[in-house]
Amino acid sequence: MPELPEVETTARSLQRQVAGDVIESVWIANKNNLLKSPAEEIARTLEGARIECVRRMGKHIVIDLARRRAGAGCHVPAPQAQWVVHLGMTGRLLVCDAAAVRAKHTHLVAQLASGRELRFIDPRRFGKLQVVSGAPFRAPGSEPIGADRAAFAKLFKPRQTPIKSALLNQKLLSGIGNIYADESLFRAAIRPRRRAASLTRAEFMRLYDAIQQVLAEAIAAGGSSISDYVDAAGAAGFFQLHHRVYGREGQPCLVCKTPIKRVVIAGRSSHYCPRCQK
DNA sequence: ACTATTTCCTGGATGC
DNA sequence: TGCATCCAGGAAATAG
To answer: In angstroms, rounded to a whole number, what is the distance separating the alpha carbons of residues A147 and A127?
Structure first.
């Protein structure tokens, strides 16, 4: 479940490995429901393009491309184009040697001038691939890291939905998923079922601080390696060792020893300490 | 305009 | 051992 910290880690890993490299050709699997743009358009946009920069926006990986103008020998920044990848649940962008065995569920392979390949692999096929040209790509909600404190409360206060659901709503904040929503709510001592509108100003501030803290720590740890997540170089993260509630149903709360509870909110499992969180 | 529920998808875990 | 069933969840689609 790549969320913001995992996507950030993957984007940084890609930036280190492939920035400046040129995509020479692209192979796309047939019969592909992961494509938000037509396969031909993706191939046309990627082939011959130089990878300028790889970065994260929400849970999206945005790859800025410099396309070669037809006939010209050099790369020019215009027309501006971007390759946008969403990892979904089990998506992976991996850089490897062209000779490496192609994993099952490989949906796209970009052959690089350096002799390596950038591959998109996604067993569960919840990922999404698209190319954007013209207007730059925009994530649906606002960026959680460094969000304005006052704007943060204003975003959630009108919502009647449980705060947990609101945190998962990417149109509000872009990047938080199930793990980091649960971990943030624990640190803020707020129960996931509380209606967003019921939170006090102080609680919103605690939640804001908790989100900043959890995301920063998780990025520093290289993300959480759950269900085989690894970054673009194949390195695992280790923030899963620091989860205080996620995946700890029945285990003692690390603060008060009360067994951690798991409930389902909006179809998602939510973990919390019934004593620490109000 | 909101909010809640269903759907997509496959590997791994569980149960008999 | 083998086969069926359940479960995980991001976000779009659908329903209310």
So the answer is: 26
- Nearest nucleotide from residue A58 CA, by C1' atom: C10
The whole-angstrom separation of Cα A196 and Cα A83 is: 35
Decide: A36 and A151 in contact? Cβ < 8 Å: no
- Residues of A identified as active-site: 2-3, 59, 268
Considering only CA atoms, give the Rg of chain A: 20
Whether the pLDDT of residue A76 is over 60: the answer is: no
Predicted pLDDT of residue A74: 54
Q: Which residue has the tokens 């849970």?
A: A59
Protein CB footprint (7 Å) on chain B nucleotides: 2-11
Strand, helix or coil for residue A194: coil
* pTM attached to this predicted model: 0.92
Q: Is the CB of A140 under 7 A from strand C?
A: yes
Checking each nucleotide's C1' against the CA of A1, the nearest proves to be: C9
- Judge whether residue A85 contacts strand C, using its CB and a 7 Å cut-off: no
Structural contact between residues A234 and A94, judged by C-beta atoms closer than 8 angstroms: yes
**Least trusted range by pLDDT, from A179-188, A229-238, A262-271:** A229-238
Q: How far is CA A152 from the centre of its chain?
A: 20
- Partner residues linked to A55 by β-bridges: A62
